[in-house]
Specification:
Length: about 210
């Protein structure tokens, strides 16, 4: 039996129709059970439903042969034991820098002024600002990022954005896009060798389903 680890939240919700199309739908609804390991209608596969950052870790450590995780998490963690063979074009959004409306971000970038940035994507954000040659102090937060500039905790935030409604409601404005983000089908490198045929076939089925074959 092969195990697939899938990130909770939007990725899980957007993945359900795709899993059903491939005959990998869970037997029980994840909303109706507290179980985090779900059997599927295909007895050769089961699902682990994990927090966004943990799904990739399950795959990297070999607890799951493959899975679905956000490209933001993969860029942040840079786990060496993962292959990222396929963009599923699901749960699309973008990683952005945002500040309060009255903060002169362009001047800060142009003059190389030191910034304080609140984010949970510290590694990803550090690489971005290093390319700009900017001095940045990072404050790691896992939630309520939008209020950090309002309460004087940070000049800017680095976070995911989709419609931008949450930014506007909290008096923020998007200043630049760091990267586009979407759900990726990932495979454990050792499992790719050990279960080569099964995982290659699964990858092809995913690719065909999302129109990338």
């Amino acid at each position: 039996m092969l195990t697939l680890a899938i990130s909770k939240g939007r990725i899980w919700r957007d993945s359900i129709p795709l899993l059903a199309q491939l005959g990998l739908a869970p037997k029980d609804s994840a909303e109706d059970t507290r179980k985090l390991i779900l059997p599927t209608v295909n007895p050769d596969f089961r699902l682990i439903i994990a927090r966004a950052g943990d799904a990739a870790t399950f795959v990297a450590c070999g607890a799951a042969a493959a899975g679905i995780a956000g490209s933001d998490t993969l860029a942040e963690t840079a786990l060496a034991d993962i292959c990222q063979p396929l963009d599923l074009n699901l749960a699309r959004c973008r990683m952005i820098v945002a500040t309060s409306v009255d903060f002169n971000y362009d001047a800060a970038v142009r003059c190389g002024l030191p910034l304080t940035v609140a984010t949970k994507y510290v590694n990803l954000a550090r690489r971005h600002f290093a390319k700009r040659g900017m001095q940045v102090r990072f404050i790691k937060l896992h939630g309520a990022l939008e209020i950090a500039p309002q309460v004087g905790l940070a000049n800017a935030i680095v976070d995911l954005a989709d419609s931008g409604d949450s930014l506007r409601v909290n008096g923020l404005i998007e200043r630049e896009k760091i990267m586009d983000v979407s759900a990726m089908f990932i495979i454990n490198r050792a499992a790719a060798r050990r279960h080569r045929l099964a995982l290659a076939t699964l990858q092809k089925r995913f690719a065909k389903a999302v129109g990338d074959a």
